[in-house]
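Hey, can you fold this one?
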Amino acid sequence: MYSVEVRDRIMIAHSLPDPFFGPAQNMHGATFVVDVAFFREKLTEQNVVVDIGAALSVLSATLKPLAYQNLDVLPQFKGTLTTTEFLCKYVFDAIAEAATSGALGEDGKTLAKIRVTLSETDLARASFEGPIGG
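Sure. Predicted structure:
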């Protein structure tokens, strides 16, 4: 299977108000490196997986509303523990929707799967991977 991966970063603030999270229950900041990998079995007619420029634009547009925000006060996250794992799925859903709606071009509609990885540090990261149609 072929893949192409693009990267961006985002700075956010949030708290994880559950004793499970120890000191992370308190308000804190995080800078995530966000990697999105796009997969397909066969290359397109142009011998690519997906248009890299379009992929970078879609990722940037997905992250922009979250950048420099306190996730605790955003309506879409009300009452949600915005863990790294949760945010991976949130970004995945937005990228998958963009792919199926044509924001990645017609070839984006036939991708096999997408993987979103958020790296908290060079020592810890989380991912969500799944099919998107095709």
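The mean pLDDT is 96. Let me know if you want another pass with a different chain boundary.
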